[in-house]
């Protein structure tokens, strides 16, 4: 007769992997005991991708922080990070961006990199001047739409597609102008290759920023990421540090603190920023010769210890992939232990099968393969149309995104409604923009490139009519999952819950809760800004204080146990020593404290464990 086991877990688990195009998902079942590498291998084999070493899988934890999956550990280990572990939702992304797109031998792999960079451009991670952004967006249109055809595309066709984070009529006009100039000059694959060549020249190529803090300026967000060149750090929209891999001596973390140690000859690109260097006084440092200076360690505060460990692993993985000779020779590293002498900290093992140098050697001996594939369609949005209702003699007006023929009376009524709504929207937009003017100003980097990081604006609907119907065929759940993965900063929750509209440029593109704010950096967002921020900060303080108390109690008990062990060894070993018996203080301690405690423990032991 079989035995029914309560609470027994299923041996298999359902895994859904969202591809680079948000509308496509690969779902399958895997054994919990299998390594997570089996999921990635299955997905890439299904997509017929052979160059697998550049890809990775991502997931979100309970706090909406994005982490790379450790492919060497079993799937059951990763399932602990999910609220509903019966079904895991992962995302396929490029983990290692090749420093030269020509290294990718297959066109399907280059196309996947093109789609990844297209996402980076749309969500603001691929920072670049407006002129460069317009040219990249025009290449995207050339790849997706082909040559410009007035009969097919018409006017204002660029406004139908989501191309840039801040998409204004002016930049859309520039995009259309550049797209028209490309007619007859390049095919879809040629446009994609030119896009990759231009993108890889940017400093932010492959830049996946993580939001950290400086202890001395906790209000200021700092964005830290690793590329094939090294570690890049932005303070606001100004590049504060660019540490090449050869200049990075050590990467470490302790609790919530991440530590980067550059070489002595490292000079930050901006001398006006001093991000938490451990050297005490800047004036004294100027008087010390360069050779005699201590290595300066740059410290950052992460949201929690798990986040700090993941960022530490991420930086070491990027450094090993682009600098080591082979994956087998990558040294295992350990972080600084929280309690010295009692541990060696966290361990790091390289997460991929090959490093870049091994891939280059393999490419020389492997023939190039031609694989057929389908290109994804561009994400669409409500197009920008002429405001025909402003002309009172015109008999057509736009209601809920559709043109309708109205009578003269109904037309005039709708004109007044639209004008009232437009005035309210403009006033709201002006009030929202005024306190953020300082953050929308562009900054010049050292090499002269202009970088703009502009936050999205949430415009609540004032009209009593229904909101504009979006063309995207997503459910609300699908839209929120896309937004939560790509927009915002990691210190707060990043998944919206209710429906409202985001104004991107002059478009209403996505649904979010009213009175909410979004910080458009690195796939982590601020939702319901003030209330959640306060709650999170209070919870973080409570967790930190509780953790400190537990650590203090543990260390105290540890030292007490060590002291008791030393006392027992001392008194039992030296009980017959003349020096011991002649010392009054030690004799008094033994007589009044040690002997009574010893007798009590022996009596307690005899009662608990009686002799047979």
UniProtKB/TrEMBL annotation:
Keywords: Membrane, Transmembrane, Transmembrane helix. One of its GO terms (biological process) is actomyosin structure organization. SUPFAM superfamilies: PH domain-like, Second domain of FERM, Ubiquitin-like. It holds the Pfam family FERM_M. This is FERM domain-containing protein. It comes from the Eukaryota. The keyword Membrane applies. InterPro entries: Band_41_domain, FERM/acyl-CoA-bd_prot_sf, FERM_2, FERM_central, FERM_domain, FERM_N, FERM_PH-like_C, PH-like_dom_sf. Residues 13-326 form the FERM domain. GO terms for cellular component: cytoskeleton. The chain crosses the membrane at residues 549-571.
């Amino acid at each position: 007769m079989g035995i029914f086991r309560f609470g027994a877990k299923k041996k298999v688990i359902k895994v859904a992997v969202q591809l680079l195009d948000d509308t496509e998902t690969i779902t399958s079942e895997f054994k919990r005991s299998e390594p997570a590498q089996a999921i990635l291998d299955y997905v890439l084999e299904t997509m017929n991708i052979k160059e697998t070493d550049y890809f990775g899988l991502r997931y979100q934890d309970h706090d909406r922080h994005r982490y790379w999956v450790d492919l060497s550990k079993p799937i059951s280990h990763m399932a602990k990070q999910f609220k509903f572990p019966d079904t895991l939702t992962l995302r396929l992304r490029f983990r290692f961006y090749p420093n030269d797109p020509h290294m990718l031998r297959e066109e399907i792999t280059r196309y996947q990199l093109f789609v990844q960079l297209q996402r980076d451009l749309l969500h603001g991670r691929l920072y670049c001047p407006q002129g460069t952004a317009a040219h990249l967006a025009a290449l995207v249109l050339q790849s997706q739409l082909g040559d410009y055809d007035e009969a097919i595309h018409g006017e204002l066709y660029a406004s139908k597609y989501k191309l840039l984070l801040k998409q204004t009529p002016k930049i859309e006009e520039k995009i259309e102008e550049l797209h028209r100039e490309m007619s007859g000059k390049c095919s879809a694959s040629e446009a994609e290759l030119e896009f990759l060549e231009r993108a890889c020249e940017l400093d932010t190529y492959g830049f996946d920023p993580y939001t950290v803090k400086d202890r001395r300026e906790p209000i200021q967000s700092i964005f830290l990421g690793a590329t094939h060149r090294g570690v890049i750090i932005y303070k606001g929209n100004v590049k504060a540090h660019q540490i090449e891999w050869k200049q990075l001596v050590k990467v470490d973390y302790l609790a919530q603190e991440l530590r980067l140690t550059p070489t002595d000859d490292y000079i930050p690109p901006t001398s006006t920023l001093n991000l938490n260097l451990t050297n005490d006084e800047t004036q004294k440092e100027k008087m010390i010769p360069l050779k005699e200076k201590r290595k300066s360690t740059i410290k950052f505060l992460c949201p929690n210890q798990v986040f700090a460990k993941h960022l530490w692993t991420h930086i070491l993985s990027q450094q090993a992939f682009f600098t080591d000779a082979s994956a087998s020779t990558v040294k295992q590293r350990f972080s600084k232990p929280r309690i010295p002498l009692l541990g060696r900290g966290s361990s790091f093992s390289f997460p991929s099968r090959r490093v870049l140098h091994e891939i280059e050697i393999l490419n020389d001996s492997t023939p190039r393969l031609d694989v057929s594939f389908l290109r994804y369609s561009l994400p669409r949005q409500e197009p920008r149309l002429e405001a025909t209702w402003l002309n009172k003699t015109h008999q057509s007006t736009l209601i809920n995104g559709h043109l309708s023929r109205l009578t003269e009376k109904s037309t005039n009524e709708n004109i007044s409604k639209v004008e009232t709504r437009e005035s309210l929207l403009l006033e709201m937009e002006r009030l929202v923009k005024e306190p953020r003017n300082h953050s929308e100003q562009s900054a010049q980097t050292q090499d002269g490139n202009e970088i703009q990081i502009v936050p999205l604006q949430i415009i609540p609907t004032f009209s009593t009519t229904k909101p504009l119907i979006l063309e995207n065929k997503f459910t609300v759940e699908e839209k929120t999952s896309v937004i939560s993965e790509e927009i915002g900063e990691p210190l707060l929750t990043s998944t919206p819950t209710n429906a409202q509209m985001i104004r991107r440029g002059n478009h209403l593109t996505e649904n979010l809760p009213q009175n909410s704010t979004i910080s458009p950096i690195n796939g982590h967002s601020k939702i319901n800004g003030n209330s959640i921020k306060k709650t999170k900060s209070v919870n973080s303080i409570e967790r930190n204080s509780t953790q400190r108390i537990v650590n203090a109690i543990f260390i105290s008990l540890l030292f007490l146990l060590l002291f008791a062990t030393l006392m027992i060894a001392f008194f039992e070993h030296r009980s017959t020593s003349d020096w011991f018996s002649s010392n009054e203080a030690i004799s008094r301690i033994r007589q009044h404290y040690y002997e009574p405690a010893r007798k009590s423990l022996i009596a307690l032991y005899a009662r608990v464990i009686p002799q047979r």
